[in-house]
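My current task is to audit a protein record that another person submitted. My question to you is simply how this chain folds and whether the tokens agree. This is what I was given:
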Amino acid sequence: MSSQVRPWNFSAGPSVLPESVLRQAAAEMLDWHGSGMSVMEMSHRGKEFGQICNEAEADLRQLLNVPDDYAVLFMQGGAIAANALVPMNLLGRSGVADYVLSGSWSVKSEKEARRYGDVRVAASSGTVLEMDGQQWQPWTWVPEAASWQVRPDAAYVHLCSNETIGGVEFNDWPDLAALGAPDAVLTVDASSNILSRPMDVSRAGVIFAGAQKNAGPAGVTLVIVRRDLLGHAQAACPSAFDFANVAKEGSCFNTPPTYSIYIAGLVFKWLKEQGGLAEIEKRNIAKSALLYDYLAQTGFYRNPVHPNFRSRMNVPFTLHDAALDAEFLSGAAARGLLQLKGHKSVGGMRASIYNAMPIEGVQALVDYMKEFERTHG
């Protein structure tokens, strides 16, 4: 067992939160800043929560350098709901949308969007790729932008910037005008790498993310949308999910997930205290390199993803003998290394090393993996 007080939590989400954030929330549970109320008890239209919400938005804008011509919304339903909200809010521009498939979550997004308009796959990594002298299996790579078949009349083109299950990450977002779709906007599901690195918000029309990876607890969904895209919702779009309504009312068109917004706000302040996203990115590069470097030098474990597209956030790996999986997980848990079981759709292991996971936790995992290899290799 690690000498630290709390175990190392490698959960893919809801995931580890900064300990200082949890301690502050605990200290403020019964009385937020002398108000006599818990944040859970506050009116979402009162001045106290108004301050919390406004500060959270301001800090998020600062962290991501969000331009003034973008609205920041705190919504509900997670990224799965956003898979419906994006087409309901944007397809009214032309009725046409294209999707880039790179794994489980982008596939879910495209399937949901088909319910609302003319949706087509512009590119997919769901086939075997011949690259670097070997074959890379489906969903272990990212389609290069030059291969995308984007329709000129597409209202938007969608991608998932980090596939949580497969451990595949986009390193850059393309210019759609260069792909022959100057009027299309990029929509990005950034649920599992939001706030892990600087992002050029201006290159996308909509960015959305469930908070429960890097931005806070489950319950609040971050939506960053360019203001000129507001007001195009389909007639069937529920009023509470119309981005224009939510933006007009400062995320309080209906009762928002107040406590989740509060915790997210504390996480934003923690990120600023760490030095912002440039510093966080350095740490995430170091953490992921520590684990990937070990995986590259061992035949006992294997990461299936092409090196050019490996996620800094979610690192899947398999043991050379799947019969050892249960013993590996049992031994890991005994050492305070939790939630390492891979997603049921792919099996194996997965270490999610989001912002709040310190490098000491990754080192503890690598040390255990080395020990397990020595005793079972």
